[in-house]
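Exercise: predict the fold of this chain.
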Amino acid sequence: MSNEQGYLDNSKLVYGVDDNPSISKKIIFGIQHIFAAFGGIIVVPLVIASALGLDVKTTTALISATILASGLATIIQARGVGKIGSRVACIMGTDFTFVSPSISVGTVLGLPGIIGATILGAFLEIILSFFIKPLMKLFPPLVTGTVVCLIGLTLLPVAIDWAAGGSGAVNYGDLKNISIAVIVLIITLILNIYGKGMISSASILIGMIIGYIICIPLGMVDFTSIKEASWVSIPRIFEYGVKFDLKAFLPAYFVTTIETVGCLKAVGESSNIRVKEEQVGEGVLADGIGSIIGGVLGSFPNTSFSQNVGVISLTKVASRHVAVMAGFILVILGFLPKISALITEIPQPVLGGVGIVMFGTVAASGIKTLSKIELNDTNLLIIATSIGLGLGVTFRPEF
């Protein structure tokens, strides 16, 4: 295996960061990443479109543009273009951090205002990317281990909501939903532990496909949106116009910059590599460039997806070439709304079954990192305070 990235211990990885699997394997592993991230990618435009009262045609166009922008941003992040991109297996997409600012701007200035704020605010993140190196002194293993652990722990309530049928669902906690989630969870674990080669590496994808098939005869898959979706959609540059107003987006971009630093460190931990300071800066720069691309295509800001850290940890496939393939597939899906709708209709309990395993694995990876440091009284207090505040605001967001 290549040592270009500076491996810590790649003996337990099926594919390291620079390893390049066959095309067929990259497609399968790439689809697996997409399944894990797709819900997050499409939910943000759905929430914003609903809050602004946009029609179905505009909402569909927004989703297609968001998927396309996510694919392009992922390719830039994982493959790297010059000094842009971290060159690790990082999947990109829009984030809930931008939902509230987008709605605030959109209420006053409409979609043109959101697009303008997306592009202008991205320049703040681009500027911040050149100052990452001095900030990296604030991210020793004590901090990164705690951050990785918190990423997993704060995502677990989302997985539980999925397993119960989805937050706000009328049948939340229904035995049928929980049963499906448990079946998918067990299948994924069995395949991952006892499966050989490709079966083990693709355990998440296989578990989700089996769960999807089980849900169809149970009436848990609504094919209406799939039938109504068009086969081809071509996003147009500045289709809705553009108005520049960045005041509501500045804090959001500052927050997402910090999130990206933590996420890239988490990807490094899962990939058994030392993520260099330059890589993190280039990764944040890719965030900013990806957000500009999102705005130009008529979509929203892009940032790294922490959900996919769990995919790497569970499947032991850390190849950035797989992430690049996932990016190419997302680009294709951006032009094919009907196929996107098919993935969109994955029942929530199916996502919950694999989500519990993935997010739990991320939390465990953070604990593994913390186990390697000296747990003296000072370090214990730092961990305790960080987890207390991190989980506290997650459980009580109204704080």
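Check your answer against the key: Strands lie at 92-93, 303-304.
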